[in-house]
Write the structure tokens for this entry.
Amino acid sequence: MTATLDTQETTAGEIPSFEVTLKVRRFNPEQSDEAFWEEHTLTMYGTDRVLDALHKIKWDHDGSLTFRRSCAHGICGSDAMRINGRNRLACKVLLKDLNPEKGPITVEPIKGLPVIKDLVVDMEPFFASYREIMPFLVTAGNQPSKERLQSPEQRERYDDTTKCILCAACTSSCPVFWTDGQYFGPAAIVNAHRFIFDSRDEGTTQRLEILNDKEGVWRCRTIFNCTEACPRGIEVTKAIQEVKQAMIRRAF
Ligand code: SF4
Ligand code: FES
């Protein structure tokens, strides 16, 4: 089915509607070991996002369609999926920007993590890597009796990597991660960067030793898929390079 934008008559102030076909990858291990594609043609509006189309399918056509979402505003990171072959947050992509008049929009689960059902993957391997890099402030000595002060320049040093929402769009777009899933992956390194370059933190040596592992930063091949995928605009590849440089400076 071929959809066309702006084909429906509108009156002043009315948002124009258009037809869109969503081709969704379905998988239900209770019914079959095989995944399959399912198409739904919907009437949507210029303000609708891919998440709205998934809601429409679930609420009006097939309640069994399974996907994660929470905030619907690009904050919680729970609805990362492959949309037209690129990792995106379904709540941040407008349908009209995907040229629905040119053909179906494909929606699949992110790659490299086991699919549980439809668009839901098992995030545990992803969070296991995240936990390993110790994503918390490490300090020694007595509890401070006043704030741990930091200059604006020191705060700026790791500002970019504080923006991570742990959506896994970067890690699951990385071909190195796809190969065996053992690589720590970009998101874990981004979150290590956030503490390695924090002037108040005292766990840098430990974190760098962890990432010096054979499945650590040296497996990055600077492919840039991660940077391209990040919905927060984090310079992921740059952060990985900075962690590599910190490691070289310490000469592990
Ligand atoms: S770095 Fe970006 S893409 Fe990766 S998990 Fe964080 S927010 Fe998502
Ligand atoms: S639903 Fe929270 S980021 Fe999309």
In short: The radius of gyration is 21 Å. The beta strands are 17-26, 36-45, 80-83, 86-89, 105-108, 115-117, 120-121. The chain has two domains: 17-121, 124-250. The chain has a mean pLDDT of 94.
